[in-house]
Design goal:
Length: 162
Amino acid sequence: MLLVASPIMKKLPSFILVVLLFVSTLFFVSPNAFAVDNTLQSYVDQYLVGQGLSGGSILGQDGAQLAASSGVNVSDSEAKALITLFKDPKSAFSSIVTVNNTRYIPTRADSEVIYATKGATGVVAVKTPKSIVIGTYNESLRPDTAGSIVGKLGGFLAENDS
């Protein structure tokens, strides 16, 4: 680097060189290095809620909520229950799916997608290699339309290793 090669820098104590190198890296780090949460948040806002879903969230495979639309909060226990249902989808039909403190009755479940409804509203959850994408919908959308919206984002995240 130019900082290390300069004659002036060779005369400075090593501690100052380390500090200068550290400070200089702050200005040359890729803007994407710190944008993961902002990017996931924009995906929720644009590709879930922006496509007509009433709410959305992206969870990590550990259940941590990485991004969510306004008013959506998937609790730790809700996330753990979803993870368990993806591991054993047959158990979904003898349980209730709870997302954002709303209880839904499962209508479809396999190792990659879970559909659950409550009257004309519902939730769709899609599992990707690194995340779980959740979308809630109201009576203005059909379950298959909501599933398509959530599935497209899930497919995108899977293809892009997110």
